[in-house]
Structure formats: structure tokens, C-alpha cells
Amino acid sequence: MHISKPIEPEISDHYFDLGVNRRATAADVKKAFHMLALRHHPDKKAPGKTIDAVEFRQVREAFEVLRNSTTRSEYDTRYNEVQEEWNEYRSNLAEYVLQEERERLEANNERVRILEEERRLAEAREREAKEEARAKVERTARQEKERLAEERSRQAAERAQKELEKVAEERLRQWEEDQGAKLKQHCEQLQRQAEKKNMMEEMMMMMEEDIMIMEEDMLIMEEDMMSMEEDMMIMEKEKNAMEENMMIMEEDMMMNKKMMMNEKRKMMEKKKMMEKKKMIEKKKMERKKKAEKRGRGQGKRRANK
């Protein structure tokens, strides 16, 4: 259940504002006023501090009421009710402050939970991206290797087929030529061997070009892998930055929790003091009532005599 901020009672607790009890003499009241006036007077504030004089006005008002016996007597007639209202207000204010701190802590916990969930999702996405990228690179490399192997096999087969066809045609023409022209045949044979040699050299050059193309493709793939590794390093840095932010927030939460515990301890101590003071005042009132009752009984006995 949400607790609204309590409203201060209309009548001030002058004894509390001066830090004295109801048995304080006029000298005690004056002494307390001078001490608090020196502490809260606007002229005594350090340079740069905000001067609102609220505490000084409270002390001044309390002194004006309690210094005069008539105004003090009138104030004392209703002080029990005033004190009760202020005790209730301070107790409610302490609960309100604790509630505000609790809600702020819960909000911080929710922000931490959301950041932790975002970090977990980011790590999961990072792992998936790494696995997908690795699988993609391996699949691309395997497909490219298979394609290049098939292409080389096909080109080699085509070149071999063409070579066989040429050899067969040359042999057929050689068979059809005049068997008697051996010199011419010898020259033609030498020429064919030279052509065959040139053809083989061309085939070797083509194979070397294919190898160079394949090496260039492998270099491109290595560059892609390096680029992906750089992207992964950037993602790792972002992850580290997020974890550092989480650690800073956790430290802030611990500090806020310690501050809240200190404030709570102070409020509990103050509450115990007020309750103790209240019990003392209650006992005083009971003793006063008993004394008055005894006085009335003695008066009746004297009247009967």
C-alpha cells in the first residue's frame, strides 16, 4: 500500500524545536535559544550555502512562546495534544521516507534485472552470430573448393579431348599423304611435335593461371575471415563495457543500500527516544493526577472534620 507524505501539524512543537523538556526553566529556554540561534542564523551560514532561515524562524517562534509565562501556560494546556500530533507525524514521516527508499531500491533492482537480461540476450546473439559466421565461412570455402576442383577437371577433360581429336586428325592426314614423301613427312612430324610442345606449354600456363586465381580467392576468403574476427573483437569490447556498467551500478546499489540502512537506524533510534520521552511524560501525568486526587481526598477529609 502506498503511503502519502504526511502533513506537518499546524501548531509547532516548541519544546522539541528548542531541544528542552516541559520542566525547563526560563533560563534553560533562553540558553537553548541562544545556542540554536547562533547555529541557524543566516549570517552564520558558510559562503555559498543556501539561506532560507526556516530553522531560525522555528527557534525564534518557540522562544517567543516559551519565554513568556502567560503564553507558555496557554501553550502547555494543549501541549499533550500537540506532542501527540507531532509524534504521530514523525512516525508517519519515517515510514514515508523508508517507503520512498524501498521503492527507489526496487526500481534500481528492476533496472539491474533488465540490464542483466539484455546482457544475457546479447551474449546469446553473439554466440549465434559467431557460430553462423563460422559455418557460413566453412560452407563457402568448401563450395568454392569443390567448384574450383570441378572447373579444373572439366577444363582438363576438354583440353585432353581436343588434343586427342587433333592427334587423330593429324594421324589421318598423315595416313592419307604420299608415303614416298618421307622428308616432307619428317618435317611435318617435327612441326607437329613443336605444335604439341607449344600446346602443352599453353596448357601449363592455363593451369598456372587457374592456380593463381585460386590463390587470389583464398586470399579474399582469408581477408573475410580477418574482417569477421575484427567484428567479433568489437562485439567482445562492447560486452566488456556492458559488464563494467553493470559492476558500477551494483556498486551504486550497495552504497545506496548502506545509506538507507544508516538512515533507517537513525530513524529507529530517534523513534525509540520519542517513545521513551512519551512514556516519561505519560508517567508524569499519571503521578500528577494521583497527586491531585490525593489532594482532593485530603480536602474532603478536612471539610468533614
Would you write up a description of this structure?
86% of the residues lie in helices and 0% in strands. It is mainly α. The protein has a domain at 134-227. Helix 2 packs antiparallel against helix 3 and helix 5 (79-176) packs antiparallel against helix 6 (182-304). The chain is rod-shaped, with a radius of gyration of 51 Å. Residues 126-157, 267-305 are annotated as: Disordered.
Notable traits:
single chain; about 0% strand; about 85% helix; DnaJ_domain; about 300 residues; mainly alpha
DSSP, total strands? 0
Tally the helices: 6
Average pLDDT for all residues: 84
Which percent band covers the strand fraction?
under 5%
In summary, what is this structure?
With 305 residues, the protein is mainly alpha-helical. Helix content is 86%, strand content 0%.
Write the layout of secondary structure elements.
Layout: H1 14-18, H2 26-40, H3 54-66, H4 69-77, H5 79-176, H6 182-304
Helix pairs in contact: 2-3, 5-6
